[in-house]
Amino acid sequence: MSAHELEEFPFAGSSYHGPAPVYAKMRAECPVAKVPTAGGVDAWVVSRYEDVRAALADPRLSRALTCVDGAPRIGGSMTTTPEMIISLDGSEHSRLRKLVAGAFTVRRVEAMRPNVQRVCDELLDAIQEKGPVVDLVEAFCVPLPLTVIGEMLGVPSEDLRAFEKDARAFATVDDRAGGEESLAALGRLNDYIVGLIADKRANPGNDMLSDLIAARDNDDRLSERELVTFGFTLIGAGFDTTANQLANSLLALFEHHREDWDRLVAQPELIPTAVEELLRHVNLFATDTTGFPRIAAEDLEIGGVRIPAGDPVIFSLTSANRDGDVFADPDELDITREHNPHISFGHGMHYCLGKQLGRMEMALALEGLTRRFPDLRLAKPENELPWHHGEINHTLSTLPVIWG
């Protein structure tokens, strides 16, 4: 296979089972290839683990340049606004990351465990009461991370339901199916977060938003716009990705890896390694990318291929996570896999700040479900399950399950 034989990006065939099949050929024959995209421009697609990991840490590949006027638009790729932390480079990114990183230390996240466990248990209690047939997306996968994010931001309990509704509408927006409802939800969320910041500034609480308002680095602190933008970033990254990864992972265990579900029921001590393997193996992203497009700020090389300045570059983290040079039997789900340096949370300066929280939520969710509902299973055939194939995620609209 040569680069000119590749189809238009995003490639066809991606699903929650894994990345598009073409990536296996790309890794073997043209791991760094220039391809046409749905946005009408050509972009470099990087598919091999070693190249993806190195490029993610290369400061010459700019996120900020993707947000300037006239930047190439790659159809089917993730887009952000210039103010978001994921859109910043160099000293601007370092400044913002330093101010917010204290909220995501291992110690701080571990201190949240009892609260996350409480939320998880309350949702499982409600499922037990409502059952034996429940939509797991509606009853568990969505409210678990969203309630945790709401409480992290200090959203009052009486506001959580409206907050959750608007956050869900905002997080599933895409270029093709945004609609007036999502835009209205975006406006309501913006107004709510602005008001919440004002309230926390006047009446600080024991929550992340209060901490971020107070965070200082010498005379530097987060601006009002940065606080609002970070609130949206936390909703999009901390809620939507976790909810969808959990739902997709549960579907994979129920329908295609039932023996692994039964093993986790019998051996809950395997759950931490199972979480890492599910993060590696189960595809969440509709375009098989989680590294966000970048633009070469100067001429450089990736995997021995020259990338001219100004060219857009796409990283396929899901392809990298199936690289046989790094992972034994890469297309197999192995919940006992010990060597698992997956890069599902990214790498380099833009690695996911909330990765420890996401891991914790996944682990507590699996532990609770396997303990409380060991015979949990799908209530309808997999081919009848509705999906929302958005610009970013493969999202299960519902996941009906039954037990007993």
Written overview of the protein:
The termini are far apart. Helices cover 46% and strands 10% of the residues. Helix 7 (143-153) packs antiparallel against helix 11 (224-255), helix 9 crosses helix 11 (224-255) and helix 11 (224-255) crosses helix 12 (258-266). The protein has 404 residues and is an alpha+beta fold. It has one domain (3-402): Cytochrome P450 (Cytochrome p450, Orthogonal Bundle). The strands form four sheets. Strands 1-2-8-5-3 form a five-stranded mixed beta sheet, covered by helices on one side. Strands 4-12-9 form a three-stranded antiparallel beta sheet. A two-stranded antiparallel sheet has the order 6-7. The chain is built from 15 helices and twelve strands.
What attributes characterize this protein structure?
3-stranded antiparallel sheet; single chain; Cytochrome p450; 5-stranded mixed sheet; 46% helix; alpha+beta; globular; 12 strands; 404 residues
Strand order of the largest sheet: 1-2-8-5-3
Mean pLDDT: 88
Radius of gyration: 21 Å
Count the strands?
Answer: 12
Q: Label the overall shape.
A: globular
Sheet-strand content, in percent, reads 5-15%
* Proportion of residues in helical segments: 40-55%
Going by helix content, strand content and strand pairing, the class is: alpha+beta
Question: Number of helical runs?
Answer: 15
Identify the CATH class.
Answer: Mainly Alpha
Give the distance, in angstroms, between the N- and C-terminal Cα atoms: 51 Å
Order of helices and strands: HEEHEHHHEHHHHHHHHEEEEHHEEEE
| Unreliable residue runs | 174-178
Tell me the number of structural domains. 1
Keywords: Heme, Iron, Metal-binding, Monooxygenase, Oxidoreductase
GO molecular function: heme binding; iron ion binding; monooxygenase activity; oxidoreductase activity, acting on paired donors, with incorporation or reduction of molecular oxygen
Protein name: Nocardicin N-oxygenase
Family: Belongs to the cytochrome P450 family.
